Amino acid sequence: MKCIAAAILCAGVFTGAAVAEPKTSTPGGNAPTTWAPPEEIAPKTAAPAEAPAPSAEAPAAAQPANAAPVSKTHAERQKDCRAQADAKGLHGKERKHFKAECLKG
User: Fold this and answer.
1) Which pLDDT score, from 0 to 100, does residue 19 have?
2) pLDDT of 3-56, one tens digit each?
3) pLDDT, tens digit, for every residue of 76-91?
4) Of 8, 30, 63, 76, which is the most exposed, with the fewest CB atoms less than 10 Å away?
5) What's the whole-model pTM score?
6) CB of 105 within 8 A of CB of 80?
7) What is the spatial distance between Cα 49 and Cα 61, in angstroms, rounded to a whole number?
8) Long-range pairs, 78-84, Cβ under 8 A, ≥24
């Protein structure tokens, strides 16, 4: 008996028949419904409009003169510290200590 029920269910799945979906009527006919999040997690306000992209005509004039320089990545700092340690000719514990201090600052 279980085999017959499983076979009917599988046949319905393979043919595209909706076995477990309840039929509900929509007020507007057969219009598809769209999912909307519950009010608890829905955004309370609309997203702010994005600022216009700076034009290519004035790339440097739009930025303030005292803007902070972009910080280097850890890999870039490591490379600089290795180069400094090589320039000083450091090896062993002295090199390790120098690199550690260099990466901190």
Assistant:
1) 47
2) 787 878 777 776 765 545 555 555 555 666 788 777 777 766 655 555 555 555
3) 999 999 999 999 999 9
4) 30
5) 0.35
6) no
7) 23
8) 78/103
pLDDT tens digit string along 51-77? 555 555 555 555 555 655 668 888 999
Distance, CA of 73 to CA of 83 (rounded, Å): 16
* C-alpha to C-alpha distance for 77 and 99, rounded to whole angstroms: 10
3-state secondary structure of 84: helix
Among 79, 77, 101, 98, CA closest to 88? 98
Neighbours of 77 (CB within 10 A): 16
| Cβ neighbours of residue 85 closer than 8 Å, sequence gap 6 or more | 95, 98, 99, 102
- CA atoms of 92 and 99, how far apart (whole Å): 11
Q: Where are the beta strands (DSSP E) in the chain?
A: none
**DSSP element (H, E) containing 52:** none
Length reported for the chain? 105
Q: How far apart (Å, rounded) are the C-alpha atoms in residues 78 and 81?
A: 5
